[in-house]
Amino acid sequence: MLKIKQNYPIARHTTFRVGGVVREYLRVKNAEELVRAVQEAKQTKKKYFILAGGSNVVFPEKYNGRVIHLISQGSTKGLFLKTQTQGESLFVEAGVSLMDFINYAIERGLAGVETLSGIPGTVGGAIVGNAGAYGQTISDNLVRVKIFNGKKTVWLSKKEGKFTYRESIFKKKGKQDWIVLEAEFDLKPGNKDELKKKSQEIIAVRNERYTPGLKCPGSFFKNVLVKNLFRLGRTKIDPTKIRDGKIPTGYLLEEVGAKGLDFGNLYIADFHGNLIINKGKATMKEVKKLANLLKARVFKKFGIKLEEEVRYVG
Questions:
Q1: Which of 94-103, 170-179, 281-290 is predicted most confidently?
Q2: Known active-site residue 166
Q3: Across all residues in the chain, what is the average pLDDT?
Q4: Under 8 Å between Cβ of 181 and 147
Q5: Would you call 219 a catalytic residue per the annotation?
Q6: Catalytic one among 93, 184, 255, 309?
Q7: Going by C-beta distance under 8 Å and a sequence separation of 6 or more, which residues neighbour residue 203?
Q8: How far is CA 293 from CA 233, 249, 268, 297, in A?
């Protein structure tokens, strides 16, 4: 039996703390409960949204649908190694926190996800958005993904996942109701102490930006791929700012005066132009207004169209 709460305040479950009430809210603990909750929503023709770690998401003041909240069950539950013919594969359930997954791998001397340290959210959410940092993405060592496609549970290969920069098939039109349940990774042997040191160094750098308790969804806009720019855009960019084929959006926003900008119940960090912070009472409407203002400024100066990394729930 699904325990559904009515008219539930949702902001507390997001890192941005933006949003009002949702018509229905329920928690699920594993893939089986998640599939059952989705199936029931589909049968009753209810609009639904799956929430996990709560980062990179913006809720409206009222969501007339069901929020299915996948709750992480602890640091080791949902993580397991299996011996295969080519070595060991790491299987991870979607609801496991990304940091628990990273720590689990590091403790076993497995390399390939350590530079993702400090990124909030769950493994499932990271796969959907192909999360990455410092030249490494979660899909780099991904083998396959178990999903529920609305009718049945199937495995998709990494190729079928269509992973690109901060994109995957799960964001494509017609596939957004596909649900990530589990993933298999092939991580390479590494030095445990070196991996742990690297992870700690990255977390230290992140903590300087993302102060614990900061009401922020994470980086608001995607970085810009140089290969996708028209010549007009390229000629206006300081070439020394390009990193790994990408232009940091924080640099573009800094150039248009975004850092430290105060905007109603929101403000932009004075140390990073791509961090929008909630003073405590911000709404989705305000967030979209600020986002559009910033996009207009960047387009006017550079001829570049920014794209949100966050998802608007609607």
A1: 281-290
A2: yes
A3: 90
A4: yes
A5: yes
A6: 309
A7: 117, 118
A8: 19, 14, 12, 6
